[in-house]
């Protein structure tokens, strides 16, 4: 959806500063003349905007760079590798992770830890997460970066426009507002204030005046945003369904380049679409949900493996996925059968989504990317037999990193969208 036209001179200036930053972010180092041609402003106007962005440390000059026009090359502009950065965090069922991303999109600091978060008291989980956020924020500051906000990916439903996790069945959490707990402890105590969920029009990731903000969003939503921004598709798809998995299965829907959230913020709950109406009970209270046939633990059980088992030499987050992949690569018939059944269940659930949305493509991300070679045949067969002209199914190159990177980049993009709020 197109943004409304600015109605004051200050808003126009703010909008044009953002346009300059996005032009450099999207096109890489380039001259003032190239930026002017890209966004349709005069060179004089762009030069004034660039000088302001250089002055507040959001842009830097690298040296001579060609504009594509005849004449002397101009000075190449690039986003600063200092100044504001985005802090992204992820709460998984079996792990916690945090990273810092600079304006250029480079991961500058990162940490993770194993954590048995299923059915845990949220207090200790958030305490550990706040500690990891503090470590990464301190490391980022040591590199000359300034945390501009924190975005957290969670495996659950987040009420639109809030930081409240309404339900996270695999964590055992309900009606829990995460921001106040994290804001007290993370990023140096008072550096955070409450914010809204996610990116894409509900509420920004960063407050006015450079105040860092804590935002909370569903991990599948942030994985889809990462795919949209970082997936490397040429050209990037404007309409796709992004399916990801850890213990559970989530999905997110991108329409016309924007995340579709739904009235309450719950759009994309593919994991709880019934695929076997008289099937197994699910932690969400439903019956026969996709998660019970294609989730990580369901596949392990179907293969005759202990859901707590891990592959030798592969401890930590993703260990069970590594176990399944290792067994599948070795030709284990039970594992291959379980993955084929999971792919068929995914295809059944996706049939309804494709019929309703008519996307350009379906993207498998998260843990599903690692298992794609064995899921795709039965998934595509199911789509093919149920749909006339099914969309292509692609595999995310981001894999399990999608939600964490999406979280950090959502803060970075908030800086690019409103540079005046992030002057040093």
From TrEMBL:
Pfam families: ROK. This is Sugar kinase of the NBD/HSP70 family, may contain an N-terminal HTH domain. The keyword S-adenosyl-L-methionine does not apply. It comes from the Bacteria. GO terms for molecular function: kinase activity. The lineage of its organism: Bacteria, Bacillati, Actinomycetota, Actinomycetes, Kitasatosporales. Gene3D superfamilies: 3.30.420.40, Winged helix-like DNA-binding domain superfamily/Winged helix DNA-binding domain (1.10.10.10). Belongs to the ROK (NagC/XylR) family. The keyword Repeat does not apply. Keywords: Kinase, Transferase. It comes from Streptomyces pini.
